[in-house]
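FIELD: query
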Amino acid sequence: MAAKGVTEYLWDIVYATWICLGLVGVLGEWAWWVGLVVPAYAVYLAWGLYKGFAGGSVPGMPQVPQQGEQQAGASKRQAKMEARGGQKVRYR
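FIELD: result
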């Protein structure tokens, strides 16, 4: 059961449930509110996923410049090539 991904989250839910049960046994019935940590964390993960898709970027991936944007660190060779009209492709 050492699989990555969803299985890890499921084990985290099991552990959080055990902690919640232990707190209820020690502190009383009001400790059931600690169980709200699991859905709150799920909402947090879902919000991060939504923001990643809505923003058009994936965390950890480099940004690709859009057409028309010039890179700040272009080399001299690239600048000369662009001044001459860019790289031309010949078809045979």
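FIELD: remark
The longest helix spans residues 6-27.
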